[in-house]
Amino acid sequence: MKLTNLPKILIILYFINLFLYSISSLIGIEEVKIFSWAIRIPILVVLYLVTSKKRQILYIAALLLYQLASVYFYFDTPSGFIFGTFCSASFKICLVILILDLVTKNNRFAFAIASIPFFVFYLYIIEIVISSLGEFYFVWIINAFLTSFIGGVGIINYINNSDKKSFWLLISGILFVIQIGAFFINKFYLKTESIYQIVILSYAISHFTFYKFLILKEEEKYVN
Q1: Are 181 and 122 in contact (CB under 8 A)?
Q2: Dihedrals φ, ψ of 114, to 5°?
Q3: C-alpha–C-alpha distance, residues 101 and 98, integer Å
Q4: Where would you find the membrane-spanning parts of this chain (predicted)?
Q5: What whole-number distance in Å separates Cα of residue 26 and Cα of residue 133?
Q6: Residue 186: DSSP 8-state
Q7: What is the Cβ-side half-sphere exposure of residue 120, based on CA atoms within 13 angstroms?
Q8: How confident is the model at residue 3, as a pLDDT?
Q9: CB 43 within 8 A of CB 17
Q10: Closest Cα partner for 118 from 74, 167, 152?
Q11: How far apart are CA 102 and CA 170, in angstroms?
Q12: Mean pLDDT over residues 12-40, rounded?
C-alpha cells in the first residue's frame, strides 16, 4: 500500500465506520455499535496527523475532549454527565479558538448578529429541559453560546468568501448547531431512534467537515 493512498483509505474507513454505527444502532447490535463508536474519533485523529502540515495540538486536544465527553455520556451516570458536560464545553472552546482568527474588527458585528438566532433557539431548548441539567446548566448555556458562535462564523465567513475552506466550515457549523439541538431533545425530551440518528450523522459529518476546513486553512497559511 502506497503511503499517498492512506488518507483516502482512512476517509473511506471513517464513513464505513459511521455507516456501521448507524445501522448497528438501528437494529440493536450492541458489540458493533460500541466498537464503531469507540474508533470513530481515533480514525479522525490518525487522518489529521497523516494529512496535516502543522499538526496542531489544540485540534488533537479538541478531538480527545470530545471522545472523553462521549465516553462520559455513554455510561449515562450523574457524575458522568457532569464530566461530559465540561468536556463537551471544553471541546467547543478549542474549536472557537481555532476559528477565532477569522474574526476581525470589520466582521465581528456580523458574526454576532448571525449567532443570535441559534443562541435564542438553544436557550429555548435549555429552558424546556433545565430541570434535567442540574446545577451545571450554565455550562450548557456556555456550550450553546460557543456552538452558536461557530454557526454564525460559518455563515458570515461563507458569505464574504465562498471558497472551499469556507464551504466546509459552513457545513460544519450548521451541523454542530443541529446536533446539539437534537442531542438535547433526544436525551431529555423525546427519546426516539430517528432523532438519535440525526445526532449520529450530524456530529460525525460535522467533525469531518471541520477537519476538511482546518486542513485547507493550514495549507493556505503554509503557502502564504
Answers
A1: yes
A2: -65, -25
A3: 7
A4: 9-28, 34-50, 57-75, 81-102, 109-130, 136-160, 167-189, 195-214
A5: 27
A6: I
A7: 6
A8: 59
A9: yes
A10: 152
A11: 13
A12: 90
Burial class (CB in 10 A: 0-12, 13-18, 19+), 88: buried
Q: Which residues contact 104 (CB under 8 A, 6 or more apart)?
A: none
Query: Is residue 135 classed as helix, strand or coil in its secondary structure?
Result: helix
Distance of CA 54 to the CA centre of its chain: 21
| CA-angle at 148, arms to 145 and 151, nearest 5° | 155
Q: Where are the domains of the chain?
A: 1-51, 95-223
**Model confidence pLDDT, tens digit, residues 64-102:** 999 999 899 888 788 888 899 899 999 999 999 999 999
| Residue 171, C-alpha cell as written in the block | 457545513
Per-residue pLDDT of 113-161, as tens digits, reads 999 998 998 888 888 877 777 788 889 899 999 999 999 999 999 998 8
| Contact between 184 and 129 (Cβ < 8 Å) | yes
Give the pLDDT score at 95: 96
Report the alpha-carbon distance of residue 94 to residue 150 in Å, rounded.
11
The three cell numbers of residue 150 are 461557530
Q: Are 24 and 64 in contact (CB under 8 A)?
A: no
C-alpha cell at 79: 457524575
**Which 8-state DSSP code applies to residue 4?**
G
pLDDT of residue 183: 81
- Whether 162 shows a pLDDT value over 60: the answer reads yes
**In the numeric block, which cell numbers belong to residue 155?**
455563515
Length of the chain: 224
**pLDDT value for 223:** 57
* pLDDT, mean over the chain: 88
Distance in angstroms (rounded) separating the CA atoms of residues 170 and 43: 23
